[in-house]
Amino acid sequence: MARLDPRIAAVTDRIIEKSRPGREAYLSLMKEEGERGIDRKALSCGNFAHGFAAAGDDKKAIRTFAGPNLGIVTAFNDMLSAHAPYYRYPEQMKVFAREAGATAQVAGGVPAMCDGVTQGQPGMDLSLFSRDTIALGTAIALSHGMFEGIAMLGICDKIVPGLLIGALRFGHLPALLIPAGPMPSGLANKEKQRVRQLYAEGKATKEELLAAESASYHGQGTCTFYGTANSNQMMMELMGLHIPGAAFANPGTKLRQHLTRAAVHRLVELAKDKRRPLGEVVDERAIVNAAVGLLATGGSTNHAIHLPAIARAAGILFDWDDLAELSHAVPLIARVYPNGSGDVNDFHHAGGMAFTTHTLLEEGLLHQNICAAGNDDFSTYATTPVEAGEGIEWQPVRESGDESLLRPASAPFQPDGGMRLVTGNLGRGCFKTSAVDSDRWTIEAPCRIFEDQRQVVEAFEAGELDGDVVVVVRFQGPRANGMPELHKLTPPLGVLQDRGHRVALVTDGRMSGASGKVPAAIHVSPEAKGGGPLSLLRDGDRVRLCGNEGLLEALDVDLSSRSPAQAPPPPVGTGRELFALFRETADEAERGGSGMLAAMEAIL
């Protein structure tokens, strides 16, 4: 493998240096937890008896410490297509654990909301903070002290980051995430998007739209576009938190069951040997690997929020300057919808994670010497699992099966990862240029100010946006309303762009892995609530967004002479009032948008 690219090494060294105090404090706490924290042997007889009272066939083994006991934290529900396959996983995993001389118990369940169901609805205001709720639920599940290893069942947007943040508070234990895979391909994503835009223009009926959506989202497994859920799986592999090649095998296949079995056996092995605890696996190198993979594959912009939050949970400081500098060093090697025509199944069949890992290692863009939990040798992540008799074997993948979708890092689609940091008198934001044609990386136009996405849709339908425009949707940050994704904006803004107008979006909200062809500065910080610069804009101000120069500016106006616009009242209904404390204490998007982590750091 090639020597590590000096640009990757320089960013890693900077992260290590600035993280040193927090990382040392975290590792010290984990060492103390491992030596003097709660475990089965430290429980009183009454505590312990409660812990195995319902363990059935495993009761004797747990009681007599016959082998490690794995704690399963599951995000199963059968409304969420990606998590419905987990229904039978715990009982299968108990069998697999017994095969390896161990036991397993469901430590607890955590909520798993579907952003696809809540897009544009009041429930989307709970989405970002569901990550912190999941982290808290994970900590509660593991707090019983009954376990020597952690198995996390979760895939989608906030769920994987939440599970990982919670489990990192038990970082003295080994841990793996066990995915269930994407649903088989249905209606092509490009066709689905075409029908959505026709509906936005009034040229398709609601029945036609529902038929297209149902043909796209049609069964168990993750949605097949390369959004946050599938970006999660890519990142977990490059951090060494999966069994190699586990990310994208479809649910319900024999291969998928073999991968789950291999994960349980591996976790038992680590627990028996007390090796590769989670807190050591998630180090600065693993965080950089995750970021490199995100950039190389054109992954979800949501991880510009989640990756700093995950890092903070392990005592590591990672920010948008780090992400932007890595983006200049990492080429774009994949075009998966919404950045291309193929879906995540096509990506997998073209070589998927195995080829991605191989070519990034070959060009020195990944840390090979990470402390992977899924396999002692990280180079095995450049292999793909295939069925072999009654088990699986891993085969190397050295070439792409479809270079229109997945290319070598030496011959990429773009020389950089296309996740640009844009800054100026309107704050700091993220611009995913990899999803946008290069002739639209610079937009300068009068702005129109909105305070929710419904207002934008109404203005579009009334014909008020029929011209060059920068649409500013403010008061969408963590403290204002929980920072929802603004997917309802994609069809109307796409229509305006297709009509030949120069259009851009600027917002302190999110767009996520479905960020598409319209240029957008998202996650703008400081957010509008509290007097951030977006609160000072007025209709008609000229705004310039430039991905080439990294600019986000209001032109020819003295913002300091203006008073901030008043924020809308706090959202209520659909349970949103329960999350008032989360909103009140949330920090900026660049730090992860989490008050929970800020409060945690204050006491450590």
Automatic annotation (TrEMBL):
Domain Dihydroxy-acid/6-phosphogluconate dehydratase C-terminal span(s) in chain numbering: 405-592
GO CC terms: cytosol
InterPro entries xrefs: 6-phosphgluc_deHydtase, Dihydro-acid_dehy_C, DiOHA_6PGluconate_deHydtase_CS, ILV_EDD_C, ILV_EDD_N, IlvD/EDD_N
Keywords, in A-Z order: 4Fe-4S, Carbohydrate metabolism, Gluconate utilization, Iron, Iron-sulfur, Lyase, Metal-binding
GO BP terms: D-gluconate metabolic process; Entner-Doudoroff pathway through 6-phosphogluconate
Domain of life: Bacteria
Keyword Calcium applies: no
UniProt family annotation: Belongs to the IlvD/Edd family.
NCBIfam families assigned: edd
Protein name, as recorded: Phosphogluconate dehydratase
Higher taxonomy: Bacteria, Pseudomonadati, Pseudomonadota, Alphaproteobacteria, Sphingomonadales
